Amino acid sequence: MSRFRYTKYIPHPLDEIDLEELINQLKGFFLESGFDSPFQRSSHFVPTLQNLYRVLAESLSQDERLPPEWRTALEGYVDDFPESQLPSDIQDFFDQLIQRLIDENYIHASEGGWDQAPQPGEGSEEDPVKHIRFELTEKSLDFLGYKTLRELMSTLGRSSFGRHHTHQLSTGVQSDAHSRPYEFGDTLNLDISATLLEAVKREGLELPFTLEYSDLMVYQTDYHSSCATVLLLDCSHSMILYDGDRFTPAKKVALALAHLIRSHFLGDSLHVVLFHDSAEEIPLAKLASVKVGPYHTNTCEGLRLSRRILLSQKKDMRQIIMITDGKPSAITLPNGRIYRNSFGLDPMILQKTYREVANCRRAGILINTFMLARDYYLVDFVKKVSQICRGKAYFTTTLNLASYILMDFMTQKTKTVH
Prior knowledge:
The protein has twelve helices and 14 strands.
């Protein structure tokens, strides 16, 4: 007869960590936009292994699931960073936790892998942690977009996502609109009651009666259009000056908007364009690692690139969501050189920018501008842009930027003419 011996199960601290909750706590670490880091006062913040140890220690130092002596050691490590060292058992725990994040595709390490970095005593005089960089994966970006969207929508109250509504009617899912006779090409979503009523009107109540083509009645629904959107982000250096970091909230908006489109507006497309001295399109997966720089603001080039992207999209609606905090201070000349003027509103730069806005309007592209500053000359500039393209202007802050953008995206109504 076989025997079994049972012992008390003692869970390992690693098994108690929820990786999604941990990634949500570390989103500020990975989405940082170049603003001076409280961890490295002498340089811009970079997601190295040493800094990852630091934010993990700060996040887990209050976690009651860890042993009390660990929490005390983590608090001391955070207080004395970067001079302090982690105890070997805690460092092994952090290494296992990081490896688990990598194995489950929440983060990925720089080329070569973090476990292949030079180790002390292997002939390398430099600190091995300086060789390692970490980035969020698309899985983490999608999760953070979902969390950000949930947080934003909870502050707005109850809301239905729906799709982009227009004034047209089509056949599809039932709505409150009256039924109409079936026409070739319609979705065969029959209104049974109305169809039988038409047959009775034609033949009377005699049984049996036959249906004819002219008896068919179909439901009408609101026509749901598809939309192509370019999120045009200003990444000039002013986005992290004066009132603090403005670029990180803009990146969070992009993540929330991307998740909203993928989950509720399946026919839509979203592209991200950065503008500074020039402009370039970036994949959404690279958005988390984008930093601002000492650049001017080439609004004209950003609009031109956005227009080219949108014209290649076969959608009923095309729009640009532009987030900026400064005046246009640069343009790209026909010979490819960049003309810059940071002092006031340069008439030549304004003229070229307004001309590109007019080009967007002629192409049927709507521009909605979200201005993160309220200087009187910038207000006049944004109002002029909105007047030319018949778009909307929002003078907002980083606190309500996301709410404004999401609500505008979901409630816009456009009449589509075929």
